[in-house]
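Limitations
The structure tokens in this dataset are predictions for the assembled complex, not deposited experimental models. Users should treat interface geometry with appropriate caution, especially where small molecules or nucleic acid strands are included. An illustrative entry is reproduced here so readers can see what is and is not provided.
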Amino acid sequence: MENFLTFFSFSDPNVRYVVLGTILLSASAAMVGSFILLQKKALVGDAVAHSVLPGICAAFLFSGTKSIPLMLLGAFTTGWLALVAIDYLTAHSKIKKDAAIGLVLSVFFGTGIVMMTYIQQSGNAAQSGLDHFIFGKAAALVGSDLLVFSILAMVILITVSLFFKTFALIAFDRAFAQALGYPVRRLDLLLTSLTVLAVVTGITAVGVVLMAAMLITPPAAARYWTDNIRRMVLIAVLFGTFAGLAGAYISYVAPAMPTGPWMVVVSSLIAFFSFFFAPRRGIVPKLYRQRKNQRVIAEENAMKVFYHLGEQGGNFTGQHNLQALMGQRDMGAANLRAALHRLQAKGWVTVQHGQWSLTDDGVGKAAKVVRLHRLWELYLTQYMAIAADHVHDDAETIEHILTPELERELEHQLGYPDKDPHDTEIPKG
Amino acid sequence: MIIQTPDPVLEVHDLTVSYARKPVLWGIDFTLPAGSITGIVGPNGAGKSTLLKAIMGLIPLSSGYVKLFGEPLDTVRNRISYVPQRESVDWDFPVSVLDVVLMGRYGKMGLLGNPGRHDRDMALHCLEKVGMSAFAKRQISQLSGGQQQRVFLARALAQEADFYFMDEPFAGVDAATEQAIIDLLKDMAAAHKTIVVVHHDLQSARTYFDWIVLLNMRLVAAGPTEQVFTEVLVQQAYGGRLNLLSQVGDLMEKREFPAREN
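Predicted assembly:
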């Protein structure tokens, strides 16, 4: 708790640096990542992230110091080379895109690891901390380096905002953008450069291995919450920022913890949560809607049982025990009992000494379901030429979903009928 | 049979297009008059969509050139509208119907500009023309095939172009949408707009189009419907055996031969 307060009071200048740095890098990565995701190039982002490692090592070997600007230059160069290699392999060889990405990623990353191992065993004292570039260490974000990263992040944020409309158009309808005369190839180049830049921005804090996750996971999670691209990018930026902050905090509290993996864990948790609980697309709300449908079906079927018994006995509010109800329609005793209790709560059925009956309101509701059933049967026989003895099962489902508007339309098309195809009466609405 | 027109708005000259060195269109050469509705008709794999893409500069030409209003495409782009095939885009993309129609205005605002009040009004007006006003705020994944096509058409209208190229606008749409689209095209042609439509239904082609381009990897015929849409020519486009042409194409691909000597 004490750590928490120290961290979030931002009184320690190091904490301020780290927080500012991670926020800027997560936000810019999420913003670029949104368009990478929408252009279906997520794997390319991963390949680029891994491919910057040999560049970093080469810069170190060249200069013998951990000069951040030089390393950024190296990272940018090899990241770029990787992209060119993927494009070239895809266009000029039998190798398909997925294989080309896998190939380039492993060749570049492998080379990077070999170089890093060589540096670590070379005995150069300046090399200590170089391994942070693999899994990231937010605490390494200090002073003048932070300035470089912040400028890069700002460049990304501003450029993507300026080209927002254009990138969205290319992601949605490339041919149309081309036909408008947009320089699509150069804009592709711009977006891939921004991708490399976003990866480069994150190498100290997140590390090259997991930077792709900061590009892709926040936008993928954000997609679950909205169908509006502007809101999606905004939500992705918020998710990314939160994950970044959480990662920075954890590695501040436990200095042995690498920052990158924690950021990824947090953003993955956000993604999981979205996947399960997002209001419209999430799995849990979907299950809830299905369960609600099942309940409506059970309730309406139970009311129909009363109505059918009423038709036979001439008294719609007549009393029946569970056995009699089950005899009319076997919908499972537990299911029926649960439905009856829900209907009772709604005031559509009442019970006295184990004898159930419809209330006056209930009779109206039951008549409506029966009426929809019979109208639909009539529609099927008249308009779709289905035999009268084949329409019942279909109507059993449709009766539960017809809206009042559709009901009126159905009545109108059928000419306000009073008899269904089996010559039974259609109750009046 | 190729009937040329004086004062053409579109001139396709000796156009050859290859995919991976394999020619898919051979020496296409025709002209179109202003204010016409032209159907590009031919069997599957005839290269109808490819011809449209080649005219729009979306794929490289192996030979020949295209002129629109007597100029190369780049100088008259803002007078041209292209409607890609409906299936060519991801309809689960997070944008609304109005957003898509607004894309039709992008050509007028440059790379960095943003749509303003006037563009919005224009887009809404175009949605009204295709009977989709009520759907402006809807996310595009909730549309039926016919509605998607109407949205694409509204986007094209929002471009306020003089020349419209449409790739299969009648594919997979309901009868009501098909009729609504053809009515709209006829109104546009009456306002002296020129329209080119890739079409695969021979039955309706005769009534829809006043100019026909019959295609099957080569140009079979081009001219006014009543003159070129004859049984003999249609038979040539659909039934004619083009084995030799595709065999030569395969050979060029295999030997990595250029479409032209230099």
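Some entries come with short summary sentences. For this one: Chain B has one domain: 10-255.
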